[in-house]
Amino acid sequence: MKILFLLFPLILLLVQGAAGERGRGACRRRGGFCTFGSCRYPTTPVGRCSTFKVCCKSVWG
């Protein structure tokens, strides 16, 4: 029974990680990459990967 208390947080982390895959995949299809916070020069934001991550794409290509 004690093992369930150890496995529950692990299962929650796996489910949370799988939910974030959708945003990263859409960002990569746009030719961008996910970054924490904001985009730095010479990139521009083109979407969101998750709550705190922004999808950035290079201005030159």
UniProtKB/TrEMBL annotation:
Domain of life assignment: Eukaryota
Keyword Cytoplasm attributed: no
GO biological process: defense response
Domain Beta-defensin-like: 26-57
Keywords linked to the UniProt accession: Signal
Cellular component per GO, a single term: extracellular region
Signal peptide: 1-20
Protein name: Beta-defensin-like domain-containing protein
Organism: Junco hyemalis
Taxonomic placement: Eukaryota, Metazoa, Chordata, Craniata, Vertebrata
